Amino acid sequence: MKLLPLHEVDADSQYKCFYEQSGGSIPVFSGAKYQRGHGIGSILSGVMKMALPVLKKGALTLGKTTLSTGMNIARDKLAGKSLQQSFQDNLKIAGSDLVSRAMNSFSQPRKRQAPPRRRVIL
Predict the structure, then answer these.
(1) How far apart are CA 30 and CA 90, in angstroms?
(2) Which of 6, 28, 46, 98: CA 20 to 30 A from 60?
(3) Are 65 and 97 in contact (CB under 8 A)?
(4) How confident is the model at residue 79 (pLDDT cuts 50, 70, 90)?
């Protein structure tokens, strides 16, 4: 096995290598190609902040209605009613109940909270 000698690099060749990689003769900061920060994400986050309470309340109502509908179906099955007929009847009732709740919640005016009073200290 033959060892190759190490190539000594002098300061001029290091500078030349850096200069060739720097991309030009004018030393100007170019910045990032794609800017990151306040863009479409900040707009969507504002929309989500407004929509999240509505979605949360809707999911809670949907869960409660689903649970009560399931209990009604089980009660009908124990009473001897056919499962298919029980599903049809209870799902119609649950659907109309959800629609009426949604219409009532959107028709009621929202209460706006007054901004907190600031105390003036003299």
Answers:
(1) 66
(2) 46
(3) yes
(4) very high
The type of residue at 56 is K
Tokens representing residue 85 in the block? 């007929």
Where are the domains positioned within the chain? 60-106
Residues 6 or more apart in contact with residue 68 via CB below 8 angstroms = 94
- Return left, alpha or beta for 119; rule: phi > 0 is left, psi -120 to 50 is alpha, else beta: beta
Encode pLDDT of 15-74 as tens digits: 666 666 665 566 666 666 666 666 677 778 788 888 888 889 989 999 999 999 999 999
- Taking each helix axis from N to C end, the angle separating 83-107 and 40-78, rounded to the nearest 10 degrees, works out to 140
